[in-house]
Amino acid sequence: MHMEGEVVLASCGGRSLHWDASHSCCVLFEGELVGEGRDAPELRLLELYRERKEGFVETLNGTFAAVIWDMACKRLMVANDRFGLHPLYKAFVDGRHIWASSPKAMLANPAFPAHLNPAGLADFLGLNLFQADDTLVRGVSEITPGTFTVCEPDGMRTLRYWDFVLSEEENGRSARSYVDGAVDVLRASADRRQAHGETSGFLLSGGTSSRVALGALDRSRLVGLAFGAPNSSEAAFAWQVAETAGIPFRFHALGPERLKADAPRGIELSPEPLSCIQFDGLGAWGMNDTDATVIVTGCGGAAVFGQPARPREWANEFTAERHFEALRIFSDEDLSQLLQPEWYREVEGAAVHRFRDDLARCPSRHGIHRLDYWALRQWTRRLDSRLAHLFPDGTRIRPLFLDNEVVDFARALPPSLRWGEKSVYRRALLKIAPELASLPATTTGGLPLSYGLRRLRYHHRLAAWRQRFSRLSAGTPVASRPLGAAPDYASWLRGELRDWMTELLLEPRTLDRGLWRREGLSALITDCLDGGERAGSAARKLFTLISLELWCRRYFDTAGAAVLPSDHSEAR
């Protein structure tokens, strides 16, 4: 097979090529390796390439995208990390193979056709993230995590060097030994992320993962960071965790006054579209007074180890459609009222169909395994990791659970130790930080994580009966524990953001795009402004549309112009 076309690399961050001493091999590297000391990562990659050739990437631990050019054999290799945390995109246009760190870099090329991808549109409206390896731009796809591409004079091939394959069978190893092993690998991962003695920020939440991570880390070198609604249980639980752990804590209260300014900035910083609700924490990092250049997170913990609050019998009730329904933003009925007919025909049913296909990519008979596989390969990659781009330049984001040793250990767990009462994840928390397990958590509906499943079920059933009884007897439900960190976004859109929303979504520039039906947009805005029971859902949908319109204006409407921030440049 002959290799047709030329290769173009669109580089992010202004990084330059690093040559070896003989000037015969060079590397372009973006990201960070952990556990490799303070030496330049480019030197480590060149050393591994000399030793292992195409196997150089298999042992790399970190967040990265890398390109190696071997002049002697005219071989170009493009690789990303196991989990796709450092995004890398590809396209083939006019005889050119293009790789870039964002679809925006593709659109900056005047020769690139700037067209909306119906599959990406369906995903973003359905889930606020993209599925498979698609993007919002037709012809641009994200490189699959854990793969590398080899370009040589006689052809191009793409190989997968790693996948998140979970154990299907039980074995004779004791649960206690697995718990001990989990604690050991978590502490080793924590040591790698705090290797150089600097004070690190730590993203705190009210759930399980941040407590497990906090139990493994050296707390004397941590500052807790969080943002959210100040009166939510998520904020209250995070405060309790920080106080009990004995670490300083900085909390940034969200408010509408920042969102209008943060939304366009977030659109510019993130490599692909996200709901602008996700950008409301941007102001927190500008006000960060910790001087921390490293932020450790608990991102992906439940996908890696399994969800301890999920009983084993839940697997028998799992269906792709049921879980998609719990995650979705717009239903097909919503979209039929909102989109122009020709676009609705393109996206009808596409998001749930693609969700089902994504789950089927996991080679497991267990529904829960397929869901954890999807969560790590899609949710963590396409949502959680993208938020890392919102932090100031020079800030390094280090997810503790997305470590090669940790994930390889966790994916070998027998199925019975990933779920429910026997969950190694839960039992590791009880061993590593019992004082944090005794605090209430959002994961368990406001009850301590130390409670067993039977006790949790009892409390949840009791709360449900109290609600039912109160409706029957008095017509007003009994107040329950307020959970979650989401502010009342509908009230923001009814108040300070009302003019911004209506002008953006209903002005001719938006309607002339040919996507939306004016009456559908107006009805959705009315649902939000009326303040009824549909207001919260309508607000979430409206912020999705606002983000999409801001992204289209910033990149599609100016495709081929110099609209990219300074950290994106194209290099041959």
Instruction: Specify the helix fraction band.
Output: 40-55%
The appropriate CATH architecture of the largest domain is: 3-Layer(aba) Sandwich
Cα-based radius of gyration, to the nearest Å: 24 Å
The mean pLDDT is 85
Under CATH, the topology of the largest domain is which?
Rossmann fold
Number of helices: 24
Number of domains: 3
Biggest sheet statistics: 6 strands, antiparallel
Distance between the termini: 23 Å
Number of strands: 18
What's the arrangement of strands in the largest beta sheet? 2-3-4-5-9-10
Low-confidence stretches: 476-483, 562-572
Structure class: alpha/beta
> What is the 3D shape?
globular
Q: What is the CATH class of the largest domain?
A: Alpha Beta
| Multimerization state | single chain
Strand fraction equals 15-25%
Domain Asparagine synthetase: 184-435
GO molecular function, one term: ATP binding
Pfam family, one: GATase_7
Domain Glutamine amidotransferase type-2: 45-108
What distinguishing features does this structure have?
Glutamine Phosphoribosylpyrophosphate, subunit 1, domain 1; 42% helix; 3 domains; nucleotide-binding; globular; Rossmann fold; alpha/beta; EC 6.3.5.4; ATP-binding; GATase_2_dom; five-stranded mixed beta sheet; 572 residues; ATP binding
